[in-house]
Design the sequence.
């Protein structure tokens, strides 16, 4: 097997390395300073010895495995061609904390104004963890083939300023990485200096990060810790181009970031900029499963006067948005948050389209919401539209719920008109057996009084046998007055 041959060659080379000084010009007389850690890590990968937690892998051999090892040919100088020579090893192993060269152009583009790298220390460097491991292995018996080598002490982490300084010009790319985004979010808790540095690195890319699966979390955290000037700068960036904020709001990740932006707005100028930017896409936002939450967040976070543009648009397009699954919820929220003239205008627009909305799967909920408000003008307008059509509405799945609501909320005179229209039905038994109209008859019995209730009971009583057998009439038959 190829791996067995490689293992045998490595094991045969160990005595030569230890006694003959084959590590790239190391004298045999100073073999105590020889570092065999890389060779031990190679053997550990084969299963011969146990290696350290983080073996130094050369960049040139990282993707080659054992197939990239070089073996001397017959008659070739072993010392000059040995793959584990110290000069080759050092050339291939750059330090993890080598100083990052400062790129003035990148710093200027990311608005860096503070140099975070501390000045170089003049004191002699401390002993590295590698040297301690090497000494430990030498004391425990030569190359450490029979004993487990001591683990290196963990390298100290660079200071916070140094960590951010190494990200100059790369902050946007780091924010789009899962672990990098978490790191930057944690650094936002370290103080104003870190907030300023991160803001300078990502503010120009706010629109792209808000729709990123990971970057949107950083933007949400940044909005919660930035100051008023930085928040205004973000608002100006997002509202500079038309429809940018609308497209972000329609995104599954961007909608969360925009909602956080709306929550953080404080001044009238910021609110006005955001509302004016969202207004052209109002209809698209309301009908979208992500965008409708942005509109609702505006209604929840801003005052009624600030939401005037939303109320006006909702009144104009009430029929269109009221017959849509997300739009009917937004329309009800608009009614709840509006006041005075805006509310009257919105309710009147819905009442004028009451007959069409009442027959819709979603619009009927808007009509029922308006009826429950008990606004005299609105209910009177609805009663005029429904008059003469109650039979038609009672025999439909969605509008039958609206007729039941009318029987519960309308004034007595309007209730009487509904019941009289039901009694004028030539064949009342059709309504009694209908899967939807039977609920209307039952509500009429519950909400009628006096002579009107007696007239309805007398009209139903001749059909008692039908009520006993029909599956849709059991609720009506259960009424105590009909059992007598």
Sequence:
């Amino acid at each position: 097997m190829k791996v067995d041959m490689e293992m045998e060659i490595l094991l045969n080379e160990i005595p030569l390395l230890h006694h003959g000084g084959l590590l790239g010009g190391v004298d045999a007389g100073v073999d105590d300073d020889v570092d065999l850690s890389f060779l031990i890590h190679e053997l550990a990968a084969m299963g011969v010895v146990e290696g350290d937690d983080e073996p130094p892998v050369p960049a040139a051999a990282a993707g080659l495995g054992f197939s990239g090892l070089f073996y001397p040919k017959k008659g070739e100088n072993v010392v000059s061609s040995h793959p584990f020579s110290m000069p080759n090893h050092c050339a291939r192993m750059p330090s993890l904390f080598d100083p990052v060269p400062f790129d003035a152009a990148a710093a200027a583009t990311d608005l860096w104004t503070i140099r975070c790298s501390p000045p170089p220390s003049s004191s002699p460097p401390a002993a590295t963890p590698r040297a301690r491991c090497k000494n430990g292995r030498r004391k425990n018996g030569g190359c450490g083939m029979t004993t487990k080598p001591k683990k290196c002490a963990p390298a100290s982490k660079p200071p916070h300023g140094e960590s951010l300084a190494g990200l100059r010009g790369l902050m946007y790319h780091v924010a789009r990485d899962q672990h990098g985004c978490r790191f930057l979010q944690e650094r936002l808790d370290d103080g104003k200096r870190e907030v300023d540095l991160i803001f300078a690195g990502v503010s120009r890319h706010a629109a792209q990060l808000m729709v990123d699966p990971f970057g949107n979390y950083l933007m949400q955290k940044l909005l919660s810790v930035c100051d008023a000037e930085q928040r205004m700068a973000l608002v100006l960036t997002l509202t500079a181009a038309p429809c940018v904020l609308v497209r972000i709001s329609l995104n599954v990740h961007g909608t969360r970031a925009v909602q956080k932006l709306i929550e953080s707005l404080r001044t009238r100028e910021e609110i006005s900029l955001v509302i004016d930017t969202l207004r052209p896409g109002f209809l698209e936002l309301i009908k979208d499963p992500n965008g409708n939450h942005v509109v609702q967040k505006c209604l929840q976070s801003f005052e009624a006067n600030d939401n005037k543009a939303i109320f006006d648009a909702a009144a104009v397009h009430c029929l269109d948005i009221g017959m849509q699954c997300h739009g009917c919820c937004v329309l009800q929220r608009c009614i709840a948050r509006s006041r005075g003239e805006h509310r009257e205008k919105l309710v009147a627009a819905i009442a004028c389209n009451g007959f069409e909305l009442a027959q819709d799967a979603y619009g009927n909920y808007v009509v029922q919401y308006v009826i429950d408000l008990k606004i005299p003008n609105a209910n009177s307008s609805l009663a005029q539209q429904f008059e003469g059509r109650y039979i038609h509405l009672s025999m439909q799945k969605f509008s039958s719920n609206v007729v039941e609501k009318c029987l519960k909320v309308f004034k007595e005179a309007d209730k009487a008109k509904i019941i009289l229209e039901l009694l004028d039905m030539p064949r009342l038994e059709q309504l009694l057996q209908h899967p939807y109209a039977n609920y209307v008859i039952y509500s009429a019995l519950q909400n009628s009084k006096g002579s009107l209730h007696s007239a309805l009971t007398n009209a139903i009583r001749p059909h008692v046998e039908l009520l006993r057998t029909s599956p849709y009439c059991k609720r009506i038959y259960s009424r105590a007055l009909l059992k007598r």
User: Anything to note?
Assistant: Residues 396 and 436 are 6 Å apart (CA to CA).
